[in-house]
Structure formats: structure tokens, C-alpha cells
Amino acid sequence: AQKITQTQPGMFVQEKEAVTLDCTYDTSDPSYGLFWYKQPSSGEMIFLIYQGSYDQQNATEGRYSLNFQKARKSANLVISASQLGDSAMYFCAMEGWSGGSNYKLTFGKGTLLTVNP
Amino acid sequence: DTGVSQNPRHKITKRGQNVTFRCDPISEHNRLYWYRQTLGQGPEFLTYFQNEAQLEKSRLLSDRFSAERPKGSFSTLEIQRTEQGDSAMYLCASSLRPGPNEQFFGPGTRLTVL
């Protein structure tokens, strides 16, 4: 079984500043993937970034980077140069690969990010 | 538009009625997932298909819920004898193997049971 913990219900950041959203996970699977999704008020889940458990380097996608610390079981999302359009709910999720059909995503409760002008 | 589509976007029904939702995945994606999201929570897995085969069902999927994916294309999720606790956003996602299981989500169907 997998568990995702996001301890920040809400975060505020000034426009153009960087912000870190925390995510810790727990799994017994030897291999797994970690994901971040953005959910604006419209409701659609938008994929942001992916990190595989065996990837040697932290993933980056444009202004998004994933600070992956395997020993600490953390996968924090860093958003650089925040924009007003970044205001949304952010979910951390994981997928465990234990040799079975475990391809479902397990999500955390999310962090509501508000970017102030 | 080549993304995941879901219909209807909103459904209001009375307790005890049956409802059916449809999901059309991205055409080349062979995996299709259903999730349920209640207010203030992250999505919770319900079930998933690889092609037409339903490979896993969550314990959240009671006997009143049934999902199909005939011919491995679109999928339907039916809820029989709806209860107020079924009120939620129902999300559909699809993905393509091999590779990281990046799932592409549809806009969701918001169900309100009165």
C-alpha cells in the first residue's frame, strides 16, 4: 500500500518568487513513480512533473522541479518565478510497481497555492 | 480536441435513481482509470482497464457501481440506486504503456445526489 502526505493545506507566495510544496510518501514497493498534478478551480487535473524512483537526477520541467530525496521519502515540488496563473490546488501522487497490476495513482490531500500580485 | 473527454459534465439526480457516465480516452491509450474526488480530498482510485479487461477494482466500488469498457475504447461508469454519499467528482484518466504512467485526466463529471 502507498501513502502520500502533504502537510501544507495552504501556501501563499508573492508573484515572481519561488515556492516549495512538500510531499512525503510511504511505500513498500521497490520501484515507484512520483507525480505532481495541478488542479485549477475548473477541476481538471493537469500533469506537471514525474520522477522515477531509480532516476539519478531530479526531474525538471520548465519552471517546475522535483526535489527528490529518496532516503527521506520526500518529493517536494519547487515552482520558480511564480505567476498568478499558478494559483491552484496541487496534488502529489505516486504509483507503485510491485510486479502486480499496481498502476493506480495514490494521491495526497493537496496544497492550495495562492499567488499574490 | 484530442484529450480525454467526459460526459455529462454535471449530473443532478434524486436518491435511488441510476446514473451513467461516459469517458472517451485519448485514442491510442490502452489504459483507462476511474477516480472519485470528494470536496477537500485528493482523487481516490476506483477501477482501471487495460484495453477491455477490468484489472483492478477498489473496495470503494460497491456492488452498486459497475464499469465497462467494451472494445477497449470508451468506458462507462454506472451507479445504481444512488445515495447522497455518492455525490462527488468522478474523474477519468488514460495512459499509454510503456513508459512512466503519466495519466491524462478528463474534466470530470460532477454528481449531485439530492
Report on the structure:
The complex is a heterodimer of chains A (117) and B (114). Chain A has strands spanning 3-5, 10-14, 19-21, 24-26, 31-39, 46-52, 60-61, 64-69, 74-79, 88-97, 106-107, 111-116. Chain A starts with a strand and ends with a strand. Chain A is built from no helices and 12 strands. In chain A, strand 5 and strand 6 form a beta hairpin. Chain A is globular and about 45 Å long. In chain A, strands 2, 5, 6, 10, 11 and 12 form a 6-stranded mixed β-sheet that branches. Chain A is 0% helix and 53% strand. Chain B contains no helices and 11 strands. In chain B, strand 5 (44-50) and strand 6 (53-57) form a beta hairpin. Chain B has 114 residues and is mostly beta strands. Chain B starts with a strand and ends with a strand. Chain B has strands at 5-7, 10-13, 19-24, 31-37, 44-50, 53-57, 65-68, 75-79, 88-95, 104-105, 109-113. Chain A binds chain B through residues 4, 33, 35, 37, 42-47, 50, 52, 91, 93, 95, 101, 103-110, and chain B through 31, 33, 35, 40-45, 48, 50, 55-56, 58, 89, 91, 93, 95, 100-108, 110.
Radius of gyration of chain A (Å): 14 Å
**What share of the residues of chain A lie within helices?**
under 10%
Characterize the biggest β-sheet of chain A: 6 strands, mixed
Low-confidence regions of chain B: none
| Total of helices of chain A | 0
Topology order of chain A in helix (H) and strand (E) letters: EEEEEEEEEEEE
Q: Largest interface, and how many residues on either side?
A: A-B, 24 and 28 residues
What are the SSEs and their pairings?
The complex is a heterodimer of chains A (117) and B (114).
Chain A: E1 3-5, E2 10-14, E3 19-21, E4 24-26, E5 31-39, E6 46-52, E7 60-61, E8 64-69, E9 74-79, E10 88-97, E11 106-107, E12 111-116
Parallel strand pairs in A: 2-12
Antiparallel strand pairs in A: 1-4, 3-9, 5-6, 5-10, 7-8, 8-9, 10-11, 10-12
Chain B: E1 5-7, E2 10-13, E3 19-24, E4 31-37, E5 44-50, E6 53-57, E7 65-68, E8 75-79, E9 88-95, E10 104-105, E11 109-113
Parallel strand pairs in B: 2-11
Antiparallel strand pairs in B: 1-3, 3-8, 4-5, 4-9, 5-6, 7-8, 9-10, 9-11
